[in-house]
Amino acid sequence: MPPSNTETPATIDLIGEDLLHNIVARLPATSFASAACVSRSWNLVCERVLSRPKLASACSFNPSYQAAVEEVLDKVLSEPIRPHFAIVSIGGSYESNNIDSEDDLEVLEEALELITAALGSKVQVITNRPSGIIGRDVLSNEFKEIELGFGEENDSILLIVGFLPGLKVTTIPLRKNYDEQETFMIDEFVTDIREFSTSVSGCNSPAAIIMFGDEFHGSMMTVMEKMDYAMSPETVIVGDTLSRFRCTNEAQGGISVAVALVFAVDRNKPPGIGETQFHAILSSGLSPVGPTYKATSVIEKDDYETWIAARREGSDENIDGETILNRVYDEIGDRIRDRQLCIGVTKTRKCSISQEKVGCMTSLALHGVCGNYQEYFVVHDVGIKTGDTFRFNFSNTNTALSSAAAVSSYLRSLNQGSNNTTGGDKQEVFGGLIFTSPDASFFGQPDVNSSPFLDNFPGVAFGGTFCSRVIGRSVLTPHVKEFQEPKAVGCCVHAYCAVYLVMSYTL
């Protein structure tokens, strides 16, 4: 019998498309990647499975460092995902495999190598050492908030990975010069971010930035003030001001003092890909107290603190530091240690990037109060000038809980699609991150940071970290009537708060 000219389809091509879709959608990430390479038709099916953005997170409290890394990797890779970025937060007392090392940077470098080897060299990875972890335990599936120094379960690793079609992601380090003043290369940092965003989207400001700093708060406030000046108002920036880190694209020929994980919209994204939005919402535990003051004398001490003499705005009479603090405490009504004080300083400064025309910017900076000496009261950090105005704020549990409730209400409306601006198309929330101040004794109830997310987006992946100071730029602040203030100057570095980064998708 002569051979037939009709080709017999391969066995795998006889599988129906719907059945194939159902099968590959259940595969772990590694097997899913292999399935996408079988044939063009399989690849198209896999593209449809991962046509929308996806976030995956996992947290391990295993005391074995190697086992903890394996557990979080196994969890986030248990479903189809092609990660564009990964954030690895390491808490507790894990030690490097290098027995001669006494530096926990070795742990961060090892984690960077392990995660990069598992996810691929093109994935942008940041490892960091926060003040605590917020995440879902891979073994118990229980959601936990663990601050360092509270309880016994300090050893923890949180891994967050994200797949964001229609966006491009990169890490850009902020370098420090080796000169006598050890100056930050902020202009170069901003220029690098702008150039990446322009090359991807045609716009010099990206959609969002997640930052980690490894310097004192005052230094990072200076960085954020300049970034606030340089970036479009629509660019959301969140993160941690003081967290040791390692990252992809580590600075060469210099010291990295901060890193930006930059998200830019791809102007060449394939047809059918929708829009990913970043929403930053602030829950604040600060309440204003007393009148507005003006600084009449400012002395900076060792780049770490500032002595301030002041008078009430509109008055010519100077008031000594002890009297000012006594008046604040009298108005608060107690001197409980939990009542942390800070001043919100309104600063108007000239600013420019590289050789650009000099402009003017106004910002609000928070400085913690640490005491008084003679006619001065003393605050942390520097950067305050004579003539700056300020107002005292104090940590208030009632404000914090009311603000958290207002945030939860806002997230509920976002979940219902009532806050979108895309012609009625419903936004689908697919993940988020939380950056929050340590507050185990402050809020007075457990898991208050994660509850707004858990209550409104059950089953949606998210995780977070505790930070000594929280970065939050272009944040929404849902107000509670009794604490509502007139719209203030923007603040980029916050205290006694939580910043929620919510990621949503609209097709």
C-alpha end-to-end distance: 56 Å
Order of strands across the biggest sheet? 5-4-21-20-24-12
Mean pLDDT across all residues, rounded? 86
Range of strand content: 35-45%
Shape field: globular
- Which segments are poorly predicted (pLDDT under 50) over 5 or more consecutive residues? 418-422, 480-487
Helical proportion, percent range:
10-25%
Instruction: Give the structural class.
Output: alpha+beta
State the total count of DSSP E strands: 24
How many helices? The count is 10
Radius of gyration: 25 Å
Describe the protein's architecture and organization:
The chain is of the alpha+beta class and 507 residues long. Helix content is 23%, strand content 35%. The protein is built from 10 helices and 24 strands. The strands form 4 sheets. It has a 6-stranded mixed beta sheet, covered by helices on one side. A 6-stranded mixed beta sheet has the order 7-11-8-9-22-23. A 6-stranded antiparallel β-barrel has the order 13-14-18-17-16-19. A hairpin with a 7-residue loop joins strand 16 and strand 17. Helix 1 crosses helix 3. It is globular and about 90 Å long. Mean pLDDT is 86; it is low at 418-422 and 480-487.
Core attributes:
24 strands, alpha+beta, 507 residues, six-stranded mixed beta sheet, 23% helix
List the helices and strands and how they pair.
Layout: H1 17-24, H2 29-35, H3 40-49, E1 54-60, H4 65-76, E2 85-91, H5 105-119, E3 124-129, E4 132-136, E5 143-147, E6 156-163, E7 167-176, H6 186-201, E8 208-213, H7 217-230, E9 236-240, E10 244-247, E11 255-265, E12 275-284, E13 286-301, E14 305-312, E15 318-319, H8 321-332, E16 341-351, E17 359-373, E18 376-380, E19 389-395, H9 397-415, E20 428-436, H10 451-456, E21 461-466, E22 470-473, E23 493-494, E24 497-506
Parallel strand pairs: 2-3, 8-9, 20-21
Antiparallel strand pairs: 1-6, 2-6, 3-10, 4-5, 4-21, 7-11, 8-11, 9-22, 12-24, 13-14, 13-19, 14-15, 14-18, 16-17, 16-19, 17-18, 20-24, 22-23
Helix pairs in contact: 1-3
